[in-house]
Amino acid sequence: MTLLLHTNDQDIQRAADILAKGGVVAFPTETVYGIGADATKSEPVDKVFAAKKRPHDNPLIVTVSDDQMLRRFAKLDQRAEKLIAHFWPGSLTLILPLLDDEILPSNVTAGLSTAAFRNPKSQVTRNLISLFNNPIVGPSANLSTKPSTTTAAHVMHDMAGRIDAVIDDGPSQIGVESTIVDLSVPDATILRPGAVTADEIAAVIGEKVIDPSSPITVAKGVAPKAPGMKYRHYAPSKEVIIFQAEDAEQLKTVLKPSDAVLALTDILAKFDLPEERSWSLGQNADSAAEELFSALRAFDDRDSVQRIYVQGLAKKGIGEAYMNRLEKSAGGQHFHLE
């Protein structure tokens, strides 16, 4: 049975005790919910892979309570020091060289000499890690390839009976995973876009940041440095197709009764669909990012919906992270009226 815990001191201590016994606990962050276990021991980490049905060559983010815990495991250069001072705790994950290749289990690092580290904004989660006094792995708390979880209810949907406990701290505020920047290379490189943009990172470190416009992929047989680089991600079982705002009127003419639409409020109004086939993404990219995974999950559970059309947005600011997740959910499919 999976326990549903709350944010009081007693429940947080209970969660820390579960971790100390080698258990697995899902925890809140400002981006999405994570699934945690002792990052210093291979056996608890294996339980995370099993719970998520996740490939073992996909490395895990290591979640720390503060920068002092980070320094026990990683080498920090001036860029890392500046980014930590500016963005931590927060939605930025840093890929850093390890102090020792064997300081973390190989199932955390995928056998690499680097690891991805994050210090989330959630005080609840930082308190949990402080009580446990060791870092915890922190992949998103969903079944592998499925949309990430932004509420405890989402976590229970995927993980009930598969993990020991879930800490419920309400919905995540941002809704897409943290930005991942690789600092193990000479030029800082974005491996996964998120709420922290390449321009913001460059302004802090005073150097250029490589921000590939197309998704970075990894060859078969090669371990990726960060999550989300090698395998299908964020995808519901239903077909997802991206459409642009200017194509809304054309799309309306070909919609079937089993089609659903996700769009910004003003665009959604053009479709005049019943509630069970429509979902507002709010007024802008910020609200769209927050709503995306919840909406995909909701329609995935509706038998009456077979296809989901989702509005594409400009790749600016958090819109870049939104489109990164949406492109992967859709497998690159876009609406074009023939």
UniProtKB/TrEMBL annotation:
One term of GO molecular function: ATP binding
Annotated EC: 2.7.7.87
Cellular compartments annotated: Cytoplasm
Catalytic activity: L-threonine + hydrogencarbonate + ATP = L-threonylcarbamoyladenylate + diphosphate + H2O
Domain of life according to the entry: Bacteria
SUPFAM superfamilies: YrdC/RibB
Keyword field: ATP-binding, Cytoplasm, Nucleotide-binding, Nucleotidyltransferase, Transferase, tRNA processing
Positions that bind ATP: 54, 58, 114, 118, 140, 148, 192, 234
Binding site for L-threonine: 31, 178
Entry-linked InterPro entries: DHBP_synth_RibB-like_a/b_dom, Sua5-like_dom, Sua5/YwlC_C, Sua5_C, T(6)A37_SUA5, TC-AMP_synthase_SUA5
Principal place of residence: cytoplasm
Record's keyword annotation contains Magnesium: no
Swiss-Prot/TrEMBL GO biological process terms: regulation of translational fidelity; tRNA processing
Domain YrdC-like: 9-196
One CC-aspect GO term: cytoplasm
Task performed by this protein: Required for the formation of a threonylcarbamoyl group on adenosine at position 37 (t(6)A37) in tRNAs that read codons beginning with adenine.
Family indicated by similarity: Belongs to the SUA5 family.
Protein name according to UniProt: Threonylcarbamoyl-AMP synthase
Organism: Oenococcus kitaharae DSM 17330
Lineage: Bacteria, Bacillati, Bacillota, Bacilli, Lactobacillales
